[in-house]
Amino acid sequence: MSTETSTDFKSYLTPFNIVTGLIIIAGLIVTVIRFTGGLGAVTNLDDNYPWGIWISFDLLCGVALAAGGYTTAAACYVFGFKKYQSAVRPAVLTAFLGYALVVLALHYDVGRPWRLPYPIFVQQGTTSLLFEVGLCVFLYLTVLFLEFLPTLFEWKGWKKLRDVLVKMTLVLVIFGVVLSTLHQSSLGALYTIAPSKLHPLWYSAYLPVFFFVSSIAAGLSMVIFEGTLSHKYLHRMMDSEYNRNHNDVILGFAKGCSWVLFGYFALKMIGLTYDNNWHYLATGFGVWFLVELLGFVALPAFLFAVGARDNNFPLIKWTAILTVLGIVLNRFNVSLVAFNYHLPSEDRYFPHIMEIIISVFIVTVGIVAFRFISTRMPVFFEHPDYKGQH
Amino acid sequence: MKRRSFLGLMGAAGAGLAVPASARAGVKDFRGFLETPGVLFDGTRCIGCRKCELACNQVNNLPEPEVPFDNLEILDSRRRTDASTFTVVNKFETANGPVYRKNQCNHCLEPACASSCFVAAFRKNTDSAVDYDDSVCVGCRYCMIACPFEIPTYEYHKVLTPRVMKCTLCGPQMRAGELRLPGCVEICPVEAMIYGPRNELINLANRRFKQFPGRYVERIYGEHEMGGTSWMYISGTPFRQVGLREDLGTKSAPELTAGALAAVPVVVAVWPVLLGGIYAINKRKEKIAAQEQKQAVAAAVAKTKEEAEEKLATSLSKAEEAANRRVDNEVKKAVKEALAKKEEELKAADASKPDEEEGK
Ligand code: SF4
Ligand code: SF4
């Protein structure tokens, strides 16, 4: 009896579980400090830097990287690329979890989290771009939840409910694209209000467009990246249908992403010319700007094109990672590095270790939730009762 | 009469006070702000005594400062507003000796803090004060990102009720009749600040420029910056050197974000139509493809059927022909046989005939 329990216990002690366990414990400790000591107890935020990495990483990057949901769903249902069908469910699940975690992260960042519904239900600041972000994220989270529900219902065997929702798919997808367009771009537009604080190389009236277009690249790259990871670690959950389409999806997305990145590069050049900022390129910030633009936009655009032409899957996968890093870099540049560029270095912000712990904690919660759901529900495979129906 | 206020002129300002809030919505052609009150700070007068800081602290019941207000050494370090300090005086060394400038909320005409707040916690009042309502504030701190003058501050160490803190232009106290003038304006021993209708302040500044040629940089900071502010500055040194940014431009915060906001209805209206259209086209393509396939299949089926029938018919007719031929042959054979038999009989009959002829 006792030996049985000990072996049971041992089987849970995989490296994965130990690491996630430790992160979750650390996260919970910091959570307690945050909600008993206030923001000042766990962050390096100050009056010059009201927004730190919780906004930069958890919100700006989180939302951009969860863009796989709307891009995949649109490609499959609106543009009629039926072969991407198998990628829709994992992408929608990732997006749903991504947004749920963004909202969770906001509870740490705002001063009075229990008032988060206020902008929608109590008093609306309609002139604020943050209002647009909040409303869209709220609505889109609902849409993603509805898009995900059929998976849950299939798992539970609630056929009628599932069929009702499946009928609404197209409407939900279009609604989702509209909402995503709005909030992806308005995240960039948040910064259009502060021309004096953001370095001219990053400030642009086109910020909303930049954020929207780059979110498409982020979404496509994340689908490739996660597809690869899941392929490796959750292979046992995938049916032959998923596996057969996997390569097609990756090639198609690589090609699409290459185009989007080229377009984004062109837009950035237009922005640079329009604002006549070329002379800044010779400064320190200019070099950094070029690193971002050439190393993380132009290069992956080119590599994706080559990878798709040669059916070079490893190249595509590495390029997807490069692109994802590039998006993260861009969001960090806009919200932290180039923000308050005029302040002396001793006044500049660097995240507190506890801020970083919370961000890692939230990502970990996401991974655990993804694993939990995708190893139980029909995400990577078609439920036997509903073959060829969705 | 002390010059620190244009109170006598405030009767005229009544017109400004009565401006309906909705009139402020149209940014471009609105001139009503001219009549609303403001403060003009004259940097050539300020002596850096920190009395205004003291008054502000008392009027707003703020906590005791770490460094008492009569200690002027603190002026050697650059300070900004924080949660318990709504105004600070900073010292700037110049070629002509030290210059002082007071810093506080400028009570913008089109405040970035107000237009950025997603619960509309800020409000520009008809008495020019930009008010903040902590009973709705979520604590997102976007107002702090948005303010070009780096004014709003936050109570980072409060757990349950953190607030955004900033100068109120003593609006609440003046509305309640507790104060006639903002605390800092009232206390200033050298009348470095004057409170009055904004257009009067602008006229006064221009008069001073004329009166003391060469003393001022002949421009009023805040007249147009970020769409204009209720609090304005004149100075003997370039504004940049006293910590006032000259690259802010004249666009107000709402103008800066108008483009992005205007895109919302466009996206909401156009996207569904466009995407729906694309979907319909794809659906139609699929439908047509399906139809064509169906037709092709039907045609193929029909063709094979026809061919099969034809084949059947020919083979049938062939078989019939063969059968006919066989019958023919049989008949012919039978006829032939019958004829042959008849002939033999006839031959036999002929042989017995001569006997009958002999017996005659
Ligand atoms: S100075 Fe800043 S805080 Fe004051 S009204 Fe203007 S935007 Fe708001
Ligand atoms: S912190 Fe409060 S006042 Fe400032 S924008 Fe957010 S909700 Fe509005």
Description:
The complex is a heterodimer of chains A (about 400) and B (about 350). Chain A contains 15 helices and no strands. Chain A is mostly helical and about 400 residues long. The N and C termini of chain A lie far apart (about 45 Å). With about 350 residues, chain B is mainly alpha-helical. Helices cover about 45% and strands about 10% of the residues of chain B. Chain B is rod-shaped, with a radius of gyration of 53 Å. Chain B starts with 9 loop residues before the first helix and ends with a helix. The interface between A and B is large, with 59 and 61 residues. Bound molecules: iron/sulfur cluster (2 copies). One iron/sulfur cluster binds next to α3 of chain B.
Strand content of chain B: 5-15%
Distance between the termini of chain B: 196 Å
Q: What's the helical proportion of residues of chain B?
A: 40-55%
Ranges of chain A with pLDDT <50 over ≥5 residues? 1-7
Radius of gyration of chain B, in Å, reads 53 Å
Bound molecules: iron/sulfur cluster
β-strand percent of chain A reads: under 5%
Q: Which spans of chain B have pLDDT < 50 for at least 5 consecutive residues?
A: 7-29, 356-360
Q: What is the molecular shape of chain A? A: globular
Q: Helix content range of the residues of chain A, please?
A: over 70%
**Helix-strand sequence of chain A:** HHHHHHHHHHHHHHH
Q: Report the mean per-residue pLDDT of chain B as an integer.
A: 86
Mind describing the biggest β-sheet of chain A? Answer: none
